[in-house]
Input
Amino acid sequence: MNPWLVVGLAGVVLVGIGLTWRHWATLTITLLRKRAGYVRHTIGVDGFELVYHEAGRRDAPPMVLLHGFAGDGDNWVLMTPHLGKDFRILIPDLPGFGETGYLPGQSYSLDRQVARLKDFFDMLHLEQVHLCGNSLGGYFAAAFAAAYPQRIASLALFNAAGVDMPKRSPFYEAAMAGENWLLVRNEADFDRVLKLVYHRPPWLPGFLRDYQIDQRVLASDDQDAVFHEIFTERVWLDQRMPQISAPTLILWGDDDRVLDISSIKLFQAGIANAQAAIIPACGHVPMMEKPEATARVYLRFLAGLTQTAPALDSLQAAEAVSGH
Output
């Protein structure tokens, strides 16, 4: 069943028992987290009370999933149920975002965030992980894999930032000029962001849409500060990528209006033997727009690390997920 339909049906039930729209939203988000097997934890990292969710089996190989700009751990809540029980899945709200939040006076630069990730890994005794990141999270994941190659069992980059793409998207041109098209200060901004990051924006129940707008508006000043620090610093990964030694999957939605799909060429040129996969009819957030198809491609890549399997190339990946 479509997860957003589940959310809508849950909302109808909650309306019936007289809860406010904010309660409908938080309770339906709780239902989605429960479906994904999320268990909430916190840990102190560099002055932050870092919030992370855990799913899967605690005795299984660890997998860490990193969300993108303005996101949080819930960006993975639709894909996580499709990853099965073969991993210990850890999903942090990165410093500056989500429940971890923003602390004035802290740096949110690439190297600072990579250092915090290392602290997070060390505190949880994660010696080697399967690391996956989307967008800004992919930027951090690639930089971490270059700095600490011995800690990475595999690397997956979903529509990742970090290269000066051969074909620049309008969003990227605006970002280079200091404009943040991912910022939400009102309802119109929220609708623009949905059209920007999805190939086909999803239907959202009104109460959940209102809640998300409210949360994004409240965080807008803090997120704008993070955005401008990152784009002012503008560290490209070209010189770091040759240090990545882990098996790497580069996955992209074919209709990414944020970071153009031409970025794949630069990641493949920089990371030895990287495999590429394309999800058709999909935008910037494949784990949200096509969670089942994206999980299937990712799991096929991981299965190929331990057994003889055909390499994923763009055509094979597209054929594997077409129709979903």
Q: What stands out?
A: The beta strands are 39-45, 48-56, 62-66, 88-92, 129-134, 152-158, 248-253, 275-279. The first strand starts at residue 39 and ends at 45.
